[in-house]
Amino acid sequence: MKKIYKAHILYTKEKDHFEELENGYIAVDANGRVTGVAADLASLGGNASQCCIESDASQCCNTEIIDFGDRLLIPAMNDLHVHAAQYRNQGIAMDLELLEWLQKYTFPEEMKYADTAYAARMYRYFVHDLWRVGTMRVCTFASIHTESTRMLMHLFQEAGMGALVGKVAMNRNCPEGLSESVEEMVKGYESLIEETFQETFLPSTASYSPLVRPIITPRFIPSCTPKMLRACGELAAKYQLPVQSHLSENRDEVALVQALEGTWYGDAYNRYGLFGQSPTVMAHCVFTEEEEMELMKRNDVVAAHCPTSNLNVTTGIAPVRQFLDEGVRVGLGSDISGGHNLSIFQVMVYAIQLSKEYYQLHHERPYLTLSEAFWMATKCGGSFFGKVGSFEPGYEFDALVIDDSNLNHDNYSLLERLERYVYMGDDRQIVHRFCRGKEILEPKN
Ligand SMILES: [Zn+2]
Fold it and tell me: From the CA of 313, how far away is ligand 1's center (Å)?
């Protein structure tokens, strides 16, 4: 059945301003796609809206009208970079720098995912909490372990949320328990891919929908031998799968890649077919300079900006404004557990604050505005998953309904209400969540 939702609608078609519809309407078809958005029913177009105006009922002409009253209706959040297998470490070991943090906390934690019972327990918390904070699509690292990764994919499928899930490929500069041979890595990926493809082509025997898919995930160049990187590039090309990894996060890391590969970071990925040959997202890009930025633009590589992680792991500040000016797509990532906050709303606030700090230091380009941060969290970040993150016709209806009555005690404008929610609100104000047109209820944990 078609649905028409009525509420105060806000979204960002363009990065520099919000579309605002007070008591507006969004029509969504049976496949979960937006067919119209308008200030009143008559302007929504289509036979159903005209027929519904005449019948004046909430169920009319094979369409259900759902009125959310004085609440805000906004696109759901997209998280472009997070580590599911580090979820237990969220908010701890924040006083360490990158390499020590990896050795003492991150690697030992990821090793535990050889145990699928442990993985099931932790991954349930992870999926549940993404739901709680209003993130309906996620691009996540799992661990090297195929069975735990499969389990994470199934949990997203069960929840009805969208996810690109990466079994992590790594075989050098890492503890033995987190190293896998190239052959095992390929075999593991192929078993995950096979399941996804079966589902795509034979929906009746589906184990999970294409909302959930594997993403090729070399941890980063220092963790992968050339043979491993080449195998990752070949898998991405053979199965037309997206790619995610880390890029230019830390000065020592950038120097190490230059020493290992004899070229700059982005170029090294590019040589292995891991830099835009299929849809690619790279986390951090703090020390990305002109040549690398140019290649990202040319190959349409998306940057995942992770401001909380930049602050916690003391890596530096990514030149986000420059990426936007150059036309490189940028989305936001919570980067748990380098980042400490799973809420992309809070990540938006940090992105704005950090860009102000960058401005203080460089005085070159203006800092980010709320609409730009919102656009990165929704339409721009969402573009990595398809037509996701906006309410324009043709977009998948991924949405949140915000009841901000406890934050709205005076005559605030709609935009002020949204800004107050972003800065001061949390999951308690999120009263409905939708992914691809379906209401997503609380997953079990
Ligand atoms: Zn990361």
Answer: 11
